[in-house]
Amino acid sequence: MPSASETGTDLTSRNPYGHGNGVSDFLSNVSRFKIIESTLREGEQFANAFFDTQKKIEIARALDEFGVDYIELTNPCASEQSRLDCEAICKLGLKAKILTHIRCHMDDARIAVATGVDGVDVMIGTSSLMRQHSHGKDIEYIKKTAIEVINFVKSQGIEVRFSTEDSFRSDLVDLLSIYSAVDQVGVNRVGVADTIGCASPRQVYELIRVLRGVVSCDIETHFHDDAGCAIANAYCALEAGATHIDTSVLGIGERNGITPLGGLMARMVATHPEYVKSKYRLDKIKDIEDLVAEAVEINIPFNNYITGFCAFTHKAGIHAKAILNDPSTYEIINPADFGMTRYVHFASRLTGWNAIRSRAQQLNISMTDKQYKECTAKIKALADIRPIAIDDADSIIRAYYRNIQSGEDSPLMDLTADEAAQLAAKEKEFGEVASA
Amino acid sequence: MPSASETGTDLTSRNPYGHGNGVSDFLSNVSRFKIIESTLREGEQFANAFFDTQKKIEIARALDEFGVDYIELTNPCASEQSRLDCEAICKLGLKAKILTHIRCHMDDARIAVATGVDGVDVMIGTSSLMRQHSHGKDIEYIKKTAIEVINFVKSQGIEVRFSTEDSFRSDLVDLLSIYSAVDQVGVNRVGVADTIGCASPRQVYELIRVLRGVVSCDIETHFHDDAGCAIANAYCALEAGATHIDTSVLGIGERNGITPLGGLMARMVATHPEYVKSKYRLDKIKDIEDLVAEAVEINIPFNNYITGFCAFTHKAGIHAKAILNDPSTYEIINPADFGMTRYVHFASRLTGWNAIRSRAQQLNISMTDKQYKECTAKIKALADIRPIAIDDADSIIRAYYRNIQSGEDSPLMDLTADEAAQLAAKEKEFGEVASA
């Protein structure tokens, strides 16, 4: 009798919350979210960041070309140059809306609206710790000030968001009370910020879901990555009804930063490819990351989402075999969507003969399965005594092929006497394993 | 009237799933999980990895000293050297239990148990894609073979785990049927593997929670990071009742790897510090990461959890002010637990005067608040025209202090004529802002 999964073609329909036909969330915005790109605000708080006006303009244009919905800029009150840069970017005529991020204070608000931005992001700390050690204000004061600032910004005909800071260590009743009050005076978005990176995915889901029932405006979320959950938290927030996600290029920001733009794209394209691919120029991610990495003098991490050097490299024998049959076996993201390429590693002790056959065929060398297997055993034998490069593996494949064509037995590679002796011993072992 | 949160001292008790007294999960193992460290198995599948015997032993000893519960090694059938290394590590007499990871096949099992390991991790692909493109077997065959292998390994008096591969794209009914069958023959652990990195946190929570009701054995989980959820998924798995988490140092593994050991520690110490700090030598994380990074020739990512160069660097003015009052305002992780130090950045255009006062006091310079503010305006003015180093800021603080002591007005720094002119203009602007 065929098992349950063998009678249908939908591979995952019976996974809880599975891709495809799984249980879906009524509140979910995963297939219609918006990006508030904050490299020029949160990212400017990164330890290494110093963007001059030209660099800010270059980054803003690149983000606009990528297709982000909003670009958020540093508070124009932070410094005079910050204010001038804000004005300059507003004048570029980008498709993305331009926001600036201010403290919940009328002085800041007046300076912000005068820059020409499309919207103002207002924030204030609401946790007891923040209230005690940062601004020292109580909840009623926060509510009153927030409403004053919101009404002022709205009166200027532009968007306004109100966000709490350190939302996940704030009292739930206080939070909902403030959000409800600002929603009632017509704020465009409320913001929930995991300023210190403590939130866990289910905690995020629960808080946003509750908030979704309290306010009718949009919900923006901002997640720091101190505990490794920034991308996951953004995803869960969208599942619970959040509408906007804050990102920065490579995640740069205070401490080790926030939800990275590229990482968010990896998460979203893996589950909702149509929306992401139709809206954003995914093939621009690498250029944008290179631009920002150079500006802040960092290297792209080896394991960066999408653009890390090994993101699409397959090594283990059984992985390589399946990938060569059907890439989706071990890939949820098509590297071609990002202008990247797949690489099947075939020069290690973990190499399988399917990978070697594939490589030989790329080299226009055709042999029998038995010959591919024997050639693979030789490559594995050498890889077992020292690291080998692709060229080494190619040399062995070519020399092995020449040997079987000519009937002669010439050396497969240039080796030291010691390596040759070790290799001979290894080949004997692998030969025994192969023939066992 | 004081608001709700102001009447109590527990800051977060009313957050859903909040830290402290929030709603707790009956099934949760977040405060009693175990680590299966797989740098020497999954990590060996990383594109750059080649570990010789000495390096494997060095890594195994370091992980043992850190306190991981298990160390998992490459399949001894992968190559003859892999088998010899496995035997060598078993003979080290480590506190950690030694496991090896094999295909679900009697040939592999016989070679594995002969190495002297404490347990064998058996795995087989169960998704339709894996069954079609990898091993080509049906569910009944998988079940039968699994039971044969499990019974054999158990008969040798050592632990045995059975894991499916690509579990999140497998049919739920097939999965539960196989797990239930192996649980009934007494497997020690079942393994759930997100081999391709597609799982989302709530999907993980749901699957593990259902599985927790089906099997009585331990539950191990293995998460790849392709979509940025590896740490979050591990956390949600523990919340749902999983008992063991697979990690590797820096997350190295196939493609861009799995849940990183350091990142998992960041997540767990942020919410359950007592357990993590009592069980693991957190101060060894940096040494272990340096050891592995050097062995596989990669740089520690700039934003690495705990040990990245900016993980504990604070820059924005309001952050710096609060951090100097109470570090927990913006830190969920105490850097000292990991032998790391905090750094409050005070030489940028975002600098606030609290940070400058703190730095001046470190330099044994005491001034009035008005003087600190004026000195800060000068530093911000310079930082607004070019990047400045700590030394530059220190120079300005010292020169400013000398000037007010001596009543003379000497230059604050060596600047080019152009810079001096720009600075004079900026100082004027900042002076106006400061006195406004």
UniProtKB/TrEMBL annotation, chains A, B:
GO biological process, one term: lysine biosynthetic process via aminoadipic acid
Recorded metabolic or biological pathway in which this protein acts: Amino-acid biosynthesis; L-lysine biosynthesis via AAA pathway; L-alpha-aminoadipate from 2-oxoglutarate: step 1/5
Stated name of the protein: homocitrate synthase
Gene Ontology molecular function terms on file: homocitrate synthase activity; metal ion binding
One GO cellular component, as annotated: mitochondrion
Species of the source: Aspergillus novoparasiticus
E.C. no: 2.3.3.14
Keywords, in A-Z order: Amino-acid biosynthesis, Lysine biosynthesis, Magnesium, Manganese, Metal-binding, Transferase
Enzyme class at the top of the EC tree: transferase
All residue ranges annotated as the Pyruvate carboxyltransferase domain in the record: 33-286
Reactions it catalyzes: acetyl-CoA + 2-oxoglutarate + H2O = (2R)-homocitrate + CoA + H(+)
